[in-house]
């Protein structure tokens, strides 16, 4: 399903459970030593997906260790992103010569818990919420907003090494399944990101692929605005 929100050059793999063949490499085991069983299963399966995506990219299996703020550390020459929630684990990778960063997020497609939308949404986003609900009442736009901001952060942090709060991105949704996130951070190397969103299989999905150059025919869809190379 991640391929619905990412360009064709990105390789994706996903799982809807925790297959018995999913195992950790020895270098990864200390990262979850002493963790609860649910955390170990998520950590293990999402790395199983990451190695499947790496194989699809023509890369050998490699340990995916958590780095600063738990961001995954990918093999040299690779950019990627991982996501997991109840019932879904997924990973996406691409060549670093093609993309500067990738961000993906998946969430159960249901309304956010009470009070969370007000924490996530800017006043302008709350003002647009009613129009979105009128446009597609079957979509939980509050959950999609959360999903998009998570994906944007996952692409932002590897590029900048800086925190990005929910209040630092103003997201505009477009009916065709695309979004634009205007970044409200001063002295940042980029001003916005464009990506895609979708709902499939009971999950809300969002993806960003920050391009180093515009893919042919993409009309800038996946290219960051004014990215400092």
UniProtKB/TrEMBL annotation:
<keyword id="KW-0460">Magnesium</keyword>
<feature type="binding site">
    <location>
        <position position="107"/>
    </location>
    <ligand>
        <name>Mg(2+)</name>
    </ligand>
</feature>
<dbReference type="InterPro" id="IPR041354">
    <property type="entry name" value="4PPT_N"/>
</dbReference>
<dbReference type="Pfam" id="PF01648">
    <property type="entry name" value="ACPS"/>
</dbReference>
<dbReference type="Pfam" id="PF17837">
    <property type="entry name" value="4PPT_N"/>
</dbReference>
<feature type="binding site">
    <location>
        <position position="105"/>
    </location>
    <ligand>
        <name>CoA</name>
    </ligand>
</feature>
<feature type="binding site">
    <location>
        <position position="105"/>
    </location>
    <ligand>
        <name>Mg(2+)</name>
    </ligand>
</feature>
<dbReference type="GO" id="GO:0005886">
    <property type="term" value="C:plasma membrane"/>
</dbReference>
<feature type="binding site">
    <location>
        <position position="106"/>
    </location>
    <ligand>
        <name>Mg(2+)</name>
    </ligand>
</feature>
<feature type="binding site">
    <location>
        <position position="47"/>
    </location>
    <ligand>
        <name>CoA</name>
    </ligand>
</feature>
<feature type="binding site">
    <location>
        <position position="39"/>
    </location>
    <ligand>
        <name>CoA</name>
    </ligand>
</feature>
<feature type="domain" description="4'-phosphopantetheinyl transferase N-terminal">
    <location>
        <begin position="28"/>
        <end position="94"/>
    </location>
</feature>
<feature type="domain" description="4'-phosphopantetheinyl transferase">
    <location>
        <begin position="101"/>
        <end position="189"/>
    </location>
</feature>
<dbReference type="InterPro" id="IPR037143">
    <property type="entry name" value="4-PPantetheinyl_Trfase_dom_sf"/>
</dbReference>
<feature type="binding site">
    <location>
        <position position="164"/>
    </location>
    <ligand>
        <name>CoA</name>
    </ligand>
</feature>
<dbReference type="GO" id="GO:0008897">
    <property type="term" value="F:holo-[acyl-carrier-protein] synthase activity"/>
</dbReference>
<protein>
    <submittedName>
        <fullName>4'-phosphopantetheinyl transferase superfamily protein</fullName>
    </submittedName>
</protein>
<dbReference type="GO" id="GO:0000287">
    <property type="term" value="F:magnesium ion binding"/>
</dbReference>
<keyword id="KW-0808">Transferase</keyword>
<dbReference type="GO" id="GO:0009239">
    <property type="term" value="P:enterobactin biosynthetic process"/>
</dbReference>
<feature type="binding site">
    <location>
        <begin position="83"/>
        <end position="84"/>
    </location>
    <ligand>
        <name>CoA</name>
    </ligand>
</feature>
<feature type="binding site">
    <location>
        <position position="154"/>
    </location>
    <ligand>
        <name>CoA</name>
    </ligand>
</feature>
<keyword id="KW-0479">Metal-binding</keyword>
<dbReference type="InterPro" id="IPR008278">
    <property type="entry name" value="4-PPantetheinyl_Trfase_dom"/>
</dbReference>
<dbReference type="GO" id="GO:0009366">
    <property type="term" value="C:enterobactin synthetase complex"/>
</dbReference>
<dbReference type="InterPro" id="IPR003542">
    <property type="entry name" value="Enbac_synth_compD-like"/>
</dbReference>
<feature type="binding site">
    <location>
        <position position="150"/>
    </location>
    <ligand>
        <name>CoA</name>
    </ligand>
</feature>
């Amino acid at each position: 399903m991640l391929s619905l929100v990412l360009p064709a050059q990105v390789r994706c793999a996903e799982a809807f459970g925790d297959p018995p063949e999913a195992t950790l490499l020895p270098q990864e085991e200390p990262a979850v030593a002493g963790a609860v069983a649910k955390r170990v299963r998520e950590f293990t399966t999402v790395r199983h997906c990451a190695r499947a995506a790496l194989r699809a990219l023509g890369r050998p299996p490699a340990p995916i260790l958590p780095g600063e703020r738990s961001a995954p550390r990918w093999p040299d020459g690779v950019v990627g992103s991982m996501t997991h929630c109840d019932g879904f684990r997924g990973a996406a990778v691409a060549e670093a010569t093609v993309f500067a960063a990738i961000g993906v997020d998946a969430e159960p497609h249901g309304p956010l818990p009470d009070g969370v939308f007000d924490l996530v949404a800017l006043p302008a986003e709350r003002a647009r919420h009613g129009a979105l609900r009128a446009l597609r009442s079957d979509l939980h736009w509050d959950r999609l907003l959360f999903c998009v901001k998570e994906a944007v952060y996952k692409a932002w942090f590897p590029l900048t090494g800086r925190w990005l709060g929910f209040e630092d991105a103003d997201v505009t949704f477009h009916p065709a399944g695309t979004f634009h996130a205007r970044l409200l951070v001063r002295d940042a190397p980029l001003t916005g990101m464009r990506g895609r969103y979708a709902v499939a299989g009971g999950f809300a999905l969002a993806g960003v692929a920050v391009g180093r150059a515009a893919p042919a025919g993409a009309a800038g869809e996946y290219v960051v605005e004014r990215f400092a190379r």
